[in-house]
Amino acid sequence: MSQNYKTTGELIKKRILIIGSNGMLGQRLVHYYYTDNNVELLCCSNEKESFIPGIDYRELDISVRKDVKKIFNEFYPDVVINAAAYTNVDKCETEKELAWRINVEGVENLMYFSKVIDAHLIHISTDYVFDGKEGPYTEDAPVNPVGYYGRTKLASENLLVASGGDYTIIRTNVLYGPVKYGRPDFVKWVVTSLREGNEIRIVDDQYNNPTYIDDLVKAIDAAIRKKAVGIYHIGGREVLNRYEFTLRIADFFDLEKSLIKRIKTEDLNQAARRPLKSGLVIQKAEKELDYFPKSIEKSFEKMRQEIDL
Ligand SMILES: NC(=O)c1ccc[n+]([C@@H]2O[C@H](COP(=O)([O-])OP(=O)(O)OC[C@H]3O[C@@H](n4cnc5c(N)ncnc54)[C@H](OP(=O)(O)O)[C@@H]3O)[C@@H](O)[C@H]2O)c1
Known about the structure:
Oligomer: single chain
CATH architecture of the domain at 13-178 and 209-239 and 277-294: 3-Layer(aba) Sandwich
Helix content: 25-40%
Number of strands: 15
Bound molecules: NADP nicotinamide-adenine-dinucleotide phosphate
Strand order of the largest sheet: 5-4-3-6-7-8-13
Strand content: 15-25%
Shape: globular
Number of helices: 10
Largest sheet: 7 strands, parallel
Order of helices and strands: EEEHEEHEHHEHEEHEEEHEEHEHH
C-alpha cells in the first residue's frame, strides 16, 4: 500500500486519479470530487498546465508507458477514471496511428498498471461502437463501428473485457453541460451562434439521447461506490435527432429559430461516417446505478445557473 495514504478522522481517503481532466467530462469530474474531503485527487491531462486552477495536476500522455507507470507508482490510486481520448472523429480517419496509440495503447497502459496495483478502472466509451442501424442500443447489442474512432474505442473495450481486472466501461453519447474551459459544448455553441445572429446548419437524421455531463459524473461515482464491473449505458431521458435537440435549446433560451437550417448528414461531407439511428438504452444503469437523468429542460436550467448562459 502507498505510504502516502492519508486519513480524515476514522476514514481512509479514496485515492482517485482522473485522466483527461482538462477535457469536457474530465473538468466536471474534477468539479465534483475537488471539494470531497473523503477523496485524495490527482488530475492528469495532455497539456502542460491544468485548465482548472488550484488542483494537484500532472502532465501525462497515456500512450507513454513509463510515464503512466511513474504516476501510478507515486500516487497509487484506488480508482482510475479515464476521460482522456483522441475524440476528433473525423481526424481519426486520417490520423489512424495516433488515434490507435491514444485510444487503444493508452488504455492498455492504464489497464495494465490498474491491474498491477488492483485499482478499479472506469473507462468511458461511446455509442460509436454501434453502426446506428437500429438504435437505441442495450449493453449486449451487437457492436459494429462504422468509423475508425469507433473501432479504436471498441478495441479498448475489448482489452478491458479480456483483462480480468476490475473495470467499468461506461458508454455515453453527445455530452453537454456547464463546461467552463476549452472548447464549448454543443448547447453553448448553439446559444452563442444564434445570439450572434449566425445561421447554423443542423442534421435531422442523427438520433441519440444527449447526456448531461453532470448526470454522467454521478453515474461514474455510483459505479465507483458500488464497484460495478462490466458495461453500462449512460444517456439522457429522450432519444431525438440533433435538429429537434437544437429547437429545444432555442425554445428554452428564447433564440431565433429561423437561423437553424435543417440538413442531412451527407450534406456535411465529413471524413467519418456516423451512426445515424443511435442512442443508448439506460435501463441497466437505472436499476444498478440508481441512475436518474434530468429532463432536457431541467439540465438547461442547471447550465443557465452555473455558467450564466
Ligand atoms: N463528447 C462527447 O459527446 C462524447 C460522446 C461519447 C463518448 N465520449 C467519450 O467520453 C470521454 C470524454 O470525452 P470528452 O468529450 O470529455 O473529450 P475531450 O473534451 O476531447 O477531452 C479529452 C481530454 O483527453 C486529453 N488527451 C488526449 N490525448 C491524451 C493523451 N494521450 N494522454 C492524456 N490525455 C489526453 C485531451 O487533451 P487535448 O485536448 O490536448 O488532446 C483532453 O483534455 C472520451 O472517452 C470520449 O470518447 C464523448
